[in-house]
Amino acid sequence: MHTYRTNTCNELNISHVGKNVKLSGWVHRKRDHGNLLFIDLRDHYGITQLVAQNPEGGEGVQAFADFEPMSSVSLESVVVVEGKVMKRAEGTANSNIATGEVEVVVTKFMVESRAEMLPLQVNSDAPFPEETRLRYRFLDLRREKLHMNIMLRSQVIASLRRRMIEQGFNEFQTPILTASSPEGARDYLVPSRIHPGKFYALPQAPQQFKQMLMVSGFDKYFQIAPCFRDEDGRADRSPGEFYQLDIEMSFVTQEDVFSAIEPVLHGVFSEFGDKKVTDYPFPRITYKESMLKYGSDKPDLRNPLIISDVTEVWRGSGFGIFNKVIEGGGVVRAIPALGCADKPRSFFDNMIEFAKSMGAQGLAYIIFEKNGEAKSPIAKFLTPEKLQELKQVAGVKDGDAVFFSSGAELAAAKLAGQVRVHLGNELSILEQGVFKFLWVVDFPYFEYDEEEKKVIFSHNPFSMPQGGMEALLSKDPLDILAYQYDIVCNGVELSSGAIRNHKPDIMYKAFEIAGYGADVVDSKFGGMISAFKFGAPPHGGLAPGVDRMVMLLADEPNIREVIAFPMNQKAEDLLMQAPNVADEKQLRELHLQLSPKAKQTLAEEAEKKSAA
Predict the structure, then answer these.
(1) Model pTM?
(2) What is the CB neighbour count within 10 angstroms for residue 208?
């Protein structure tokens, strides 16, 4: 017989009755009935019920001599048992587990590894503080829901890899130690021991490498790629590191990229999700349309509310606030609140408070009562004809209400989008049981940075501008669109992508408009710009986030629930105690010296730790 097990804890059934078996696992639960002891033994695969008879007890199953050590074993101890498979007594079967028709009568019992008192309960879904869960992540990962999430992640990655290979893509690995590049987030820097004063950077993405693979003649590339960004964590973004399905293709148009990834995403979400998935080809909307209708470049199509532009309805009205906005070149947007005319005043007050929490001064609204009367302090500024026009443009009727967002176009759109999302949740009107995908296309190539007072790249600086060099030479930079696109599911941006700028002259000109000279391009992107000078194919790609895909499939609101060993929101690994202090020898080898502020901070932390 095997040293540890003949079967897993999810394997035994009626066909095994009468057989002698050996099982190993963790003590999940204990139920001591005095003369009879029941233990649920758990391993990676499932649970099997063990039973032992107290030698001092009455008749029943075979008495077990080592009953006392077995009865005193602590939860989560690792044990090895031998015994005979028996059918459970009539009426005691457990349909919730695969082994629920049988139990193992224990004949030998050995504690392989005894567990101390637990800081969190493994056999319960009861909530525990996140700090405790992360500090004892190895225990947290034993809990059923989280354990299943991590297994789901593994299966999703395997499915992605299989589907990409079936489409003719080849998997290549790109460097982890590379050069810093200005790609929007802070780099993690790694000091070089053998090159004093110089640093490597961990890649924010394999962007330049995958493009150079296309220049090298490889036609279709993919990688389950680790990416590193020194940015704050959010519910849908892990601080420090994340993984993405990185893809690049040569000699392709935007539609070719869409056609390659749509069946992969549709297949994975159909395979592992229990919801209806948007049929491909997925819907496409422009960035401009998305910002107008949804107030976001990652709209949740489960929400039926559509924002509209009512600037012309309010133009020339007597409402001073809107008039001032419109005369200054701003806009007024309307967000319908369907069926809300009979909501109490507190509902509208709460919506105003929500808008203020988003940075707005307030939130105007009009209620169209069921008798047709418009009820609001600002309704008097519109004629009956204009009120009818408002209802038509905003898509509301008697019995509905409408909220308004005003200001500069982008700011008004964003607030309207936030109000739309909040209303959708408050009214519980999101369509259920669906994964709704869409593409957002035609992003602006440049945008104006109010703080820097200059034109900057809107998203990816490596995108091809629509119209090429002619557009860069003849158009207002803020009117230029890019061959850039986002794939969105249920309001979650899974990926940005683009058809790349593979022509050196266009790249130099684009960076010039954004305020970077040719020397900066050669310095920061020397490898890629050099490659482009020796014959570069048209190419494009994208990189859907693996963490976010699994988060959606597992129906988890927090991305840390689908990552085995995540950092907390302060980018700390509480289990491994990272980041940590480097000793003087390490610092000397790396030619580093701590600043006075860093020394003071470390001293204060050491003092607090000592006092605790």
Answers:
(1) 0.91
(2) 22
